[in-house]
Amino acid sequence: MVVTRRSVVKGLAAGLVATRIPAGEAQEARAATSFRAWDVHCHLGPLPGDTPEEKLGVLIEHMDRLGIERVIVSQGFEDHETHPTRDEVRLENDRVMRAVKHYPDRALGALYVSPDDVVFCLEEFDRCVRDGPMVSVGELESDVRCNSPALDPLVERAIAMNVPILQHTWYKTGGNEPGESIPFDLVELAKRHPDAKFICGHTGGTWEVGIRAIRDTKNIWAEVAGSDPTSGFTEMAVRELGAERVVFGSDAGGRTFASQMAKVVGADISDNEKEMILGGNLRRLLAPMLKAKGIRA
Amino acid sequence: MIDTNVHLFQWPFRRLAADDPAELAKRLQERGVTEAWAGSFEALLCRDVSGVNARLADGCRRYGENFLVPFGCVNPNMPDWEEDLRRCHEEYGMPGIRVYPNYHGYSVGSAGFAQLLSLAERTGMAVQIALSMEDIRTQFPLMVVPPTDPAPLAESIAKYPRLKLMMLNAGYWTDERRTEIDPLRKARNVYFDIAMNEGIGGLVRLRKATAPERVVFGSHHPFFYFESALLKVRSAGLPHDEEAALLEENARAFLGRG
Lengths: 297, 258
What we know:
The complex is a heterodimer of chains A (297) and B (258). In chain A, 43% of the residues lie in helices and 14% in strands. Chain A has 297 residues and is α/β, with parallel strands linked by helices. Chain B contains ten helices and eight strands. Chain B has helices at 21-30, 49-64, 81-91, 101-104, 111-123, 151-156, 182-186, 202-209, 226-234, 240-254; strands at 2-8, 35-40, 68-70, 96-99, 126-130, 165-168, 190-193, 215-216. In chain B, the strands form two sheets. Chain B has a five-stranded parallel β-sheet. A three-stranded parallel β-sheet of chain B has the order 1-2-3. In chain B, strand 7 (190-193), helix 8 (202-209) and strand 8 (215-216) form a beta-alpha-beta unit. At the A-B interface, helix 2, helix 3 and helix 10 of A face helix 9 and helix 10 of B.
């Protein structure tokens, strides 16, 4: 059986993963998808390398192996994400901006803040998003649950600039960490701000609960990142929310692109739905900011 | 391609697209799998393990002769478990068994499990230990089953030099920072599948912490999307010959068919 690169890529994209590829040809069959994949959820921390540029370089090497076009990178260089000081927040954002400046065609930056520090939070938004290169907010992952009114000023600022917000959520059997948000918290926040656009990070991890929690709140998008690649996740999200409300994210480097992308390319959904989830929906969410900053979508 | 880690029948807490044996075989073959080692989801919760194994053997024969290879279950906490092992070996011709210590409530350091390993070694039966089936954070709240800790086995593995042992769904339990399980990683008769291996560069780290010739392809399908394991291999950046070994040859060597 002769398997060309084109046929393999097409097969993978359709969920019909490379069949009977002789070992000698496998090296040529890397791209997981022929779609334009954009990943909304990456961190630099767990990657090898000493500098932000080196770490992002490693990430891009792995992106290339699966055909991922762009990633959005936020905090996580060091492990103080839940209760950072102002200096730590500033340093995290500086590292992200430094990394994406080195690879402007492959990575975009997203703001990290600790919402309980309202004044500094808005200053940092203006520095990094309004006046800087960042195009979105989050992953927000502080020890303030996201239903707190402390987030309201940040959300209003995001609405004003038409910037989406990625909020970490988990719904853990056995209980969450103190201050860790659940999807229901995000629903409260989203209902207070119907003009804002929220991405429900991990869709709560326990996705059968998370999808139901956000189902009726139309300004929340489900995100597939950062949980095991359990079969049925994406199919249920598409069935209950519509493909237009589901976005691809990986949570790399703690997770592989492979396991998270598999949730989409391996799902029993149409090619059109895969295209929307893998990148189309995110590009639409980011379109106003990309246009404002002159970034090619 | 040999998939060392699939299950037949229904997961207790969710319907899966391929929980029909015929559909599972069809999907795996469409994805290029030439042989799949199958356990039974029924083994997790059913006390009648003998019946579970009979249905597994029948299902593999009926829906995947020479393709689905049954790995029956033996629970050393059950009376007369030796008979289950005998049937798996002699009546069903299984090359090995798959055990679930966390679901069956014993430690891999227990005396009963030591007896099971000894008997498996004597009869030449391979043993797959499913260290985990599901992230504990997403389990059904009335049925929380923590992963099996392999550390006690690290202390005793040297006693079984001819045993063919494979760790399935090892995930973070084989994190390289856990030095206490180094004897398992270094034992030449202990293999690892990749289904729950995670993190950018995770597969390369697993191969480095163990040995390239002892890492095998396992998907944990249909519980996981099959593509997860395949894309891990495709994105690992391995030379052709090492990729081929991981996808097939290492599994053959594990069963002594290399």
